[in-house]
Amino acid sequence: MTVQRIGAVAGASPPTTSAAAAGEAARLRPAALLYLCCVVALAIGGGLLGIRLLQAGAQPTVVHIGPSGLGVPARTSFGSVEVESVQQLRGLTPKQLSGMTHGIQSLVKADQMQVQLVLALRNAHGTAAPYDPDQLAIRLVRRNGKAKSYAPETTSVRAGALAARAAMETTLGFVIPRFNPKGTRLSLAVREPGRSPINLDLGPVRPGRSLAAVQAALAQDHNH
Q1: Are 170 and 117 in contact (CB under 8 A)?
Q2: What is the DSSP secondary structure assignment for residue 67, as one 8-state letter?
Q3: 1 three-class SS
Q4: Are 164 and 125 in contact (CB under 8 A)?
Q5: Which of 84, 93, 120, 204 pairs as cysteine with 110 (C-beta 3.0–4.6 A)?
Q6: Angle at the Cα of 70 (from 68 to 71), degrees rounded to 5?
Q7: pLDDT at residue 12 above 80?
Q8: How many C-beta atoms lie closer than 10 Å to residue 53's C-beta?
Q9: Is the alpha carbon torsion for 155, 156, 158, 164 positive or negative?
Q10: How far apart (Å, rounded) are the C-alpha atoms in residues 55 and 120?
Q11: Cα 79 to Cα 90: distance, rounded to the nearest angstrom
C-alpha cells in the first residue's frame, strides 16, 4: 500500500512543467504585439510618404531661363503681351553688299543693328481691343539708367482691333546703333494711354566684331 501511494505522488509532478511553459508564452505575447504594431506603423508611414512624393512629382517646377522680359506674359489694359523671341541682326558692310549700298530700302548698315521681335498679343476681355505698333518701342538702357527709345521700322501688322478672347502674333523690326557703352541692355517699352509704360528687359546688346573693324570697313568703302 505504501508503494502505491508513492507512485501516485510521483505521477502528479509533470503538470508543473506545463505551467512554466504557459507562463513563458504569456510573457512573449506583448513583445510580439509591439513588434507587429511597429511594422504596421512603418508600412503606413511609407505609403503616405510615397503618395506625397507622387503628388509633388505631378506638379513640375517651371524654371525661367533668360531675361525677365522674354517668354513671360506682361499684363496690359486689354490682356497681355509676351515677347516670344528676340534676334539681334548685325548690319552688312559695303563689302558684304558688293558695293551696292545705294537705292536699297530698309538697309541696315554695318554700324547699325536690327532687333527683331516676335510678340504675342492676347485679348482677355469680351469686347474687341485696339492695338497699335506705334505704342511699342525698343529702349537702350545704360548702366547709369539713361535710356534712348527707337520706334519700329517694320511690322507685320498695322494698327487695328483684336477680337474678343482672341490672340495674335506680330513681328516687329527696330534699327538701333550697333555699338553702345558696356553694360547697355535692350528693353521693350509698351505704352498705353492713361497707364504707366511697361518695360520688358530683353538682355544685353551683343554687337559682334569690334568697333575698329567696322570703322575700317566703312572707311575702305568711302576711299573707293
Answers
A1: no
A2: -
A3: coil
A4: yes
A5: 93
A6: 110
A7: no
A8: 10
A9: negative
A10: 33
A11: 33
129-154 pLDDT, tens digit per residue, is 999 999 999 999 999 999 999 999 99
Q: In one letter, which amino acid is 19? A: A
Q: What single letter denotes the amino acid at residue 32?
A: A
pLDDT tens-place string over residues 205-218: 988 777 777 767 66
3 state SS for 104-170: CCCCCECCEEEEEEEEEEEECCCCCEEECHHHEEEEEECCCCCEEEECCCEECCCCEEECCCCEEEE
* 79-90 β-sheet, strand order: 74-75, 79-90, 112-123, 167-177, 154-155
Q: How far is 92 from 17, CA to CA, in rounded Å?
A: 108
Q: What angle do CA 172, 176, 182 make, to 5 degrees?
A: 125
DSSP 8-class letter at 197:
P
The residue that leads in pLDDT, 6 or 214, is 214
Q: What is the DSSP letter of 193?
A: T
For residues 207, 208, 213, 216, the Cα torsion angle rounded to the nearest 10 degrees is -50
C-alpha cell belonging to residue 25: 508564452
Tens-digit pLDDT profile for residues 67-98: 899 999 999 999 999 999 999 998 775 555 54
Task: Mean pLDDT check: name the lowest of 3-17, 77-91, 119-133.
Answer: 3-17
8 A C-beta contact, residue 114 and residue 108: yes
Report the pLDDT value the prediction gives residue 2, as an integer from 0 to 100.
47
Question: Grid coordinates representing 199?
Answer: 518695360
Q: Which residues pair with 166 in a beta bridge?
A: none
Least confident of 7-16, 55-64, 84-93: 7-16
